Amino acid sequence: MPQNAGSLDSTRLQCPECSIAMLAADEDGIVTPRCAECGGRWFGRNELTAYLNRRGVEFRWGWGERLSSPPPLPCPTCHAATLYLFQATEVTLARCAGCGGTFATGRQLRAMETRYERWLMEDERRDTWLRPLMWLVTAAVAAAFTFLLRSGR
After folding, report:
1. Residue 128's pLDDT band (boundaries 50, 70, 90)?
2. Does the pLDDT of residue 42 top 90, yes or no?
3. DSSP label at residue 141
4. Cα separation, 60 vs 19, whole angstroms
5. Which DSSP symbol is given to 4?
6. 88 in helix, strand or coil?
7. What is the rounded average pLDDT of the residues 20-49?
8. pTM score
9. How far, in Å, CA of 126 to CA of 119, rounded?
10. Given phi > 0 = left and psi -120 to 50 = alpha, else beta, which region is 109?
11. 53 has a pLDDT exceeding 60
């Protein structure tokens, strides 16, 4: 569940990418620690999905294989080297093996949003040519059915 501003203690959270303190940032009603340098955000377990959904990105994604390199980064929450890179759907993200939190840079978040928008446009283009085709098929089936009924077969 997304944290609220009162419960977020970002003063002790360090950006795994830049190693600077992350500050609380409220975007679309979800408060997460954000790095002023790289734009990266730290999401607790399940917060990334809530964040993307709140921004209109109903992204169906899954965690793929854990990448063997580079070595794990320090987790902002656990303060241990438990932040491994995973090849998630279409983007590489860092996920903590301990707390389940996820770190995504600003570039990675934009890439997920852009890919979703591109998918929607492709889906809309598919519908544009598919709708008339489906209408023709439906009309042909209805005409054939009407012909069979009238001919008594």
Report:
1. low
2. yes
3. H
4. 30
5. P
6. strand
7. 88
8. 0.66
9. 10
10. alpha
11. yes
State which H helix or E strand residue 125 sits in. Answer: helix 106-151
- The helix/strand/coil state of 82 is coil
Distance CA 117, CA 37 (A): 26
Helices (H) and strands (E) in the chain, counts: 2, 7
- Residue 132 structure tokens: 């008339």
Q: Which residues contact 42 (CB under 8 A, 6 or more apart)?
A: 13, 15, 22, 32, 33, 34, 76, 77, 101, 102, 103
Distances (CA, A) of 123 to 118, 126, 127: 9, 5, 6
b vs e for 88-123, b when ≥16 Cβ sit within 10 Å of the residue's Cβ? beebebbbbeebebbbbbeebbeebeebbeeeeeee
Residue 70, preceding peptide bond in cis (omega within 30° of 0): yes
> Nearest CA to 30 among 109, 116, 120, 112?
109
Helices 47-54/106-151 angle, 10° precision: 70
Residue 151 — φ and ψ, nearest 5°? -85, -10
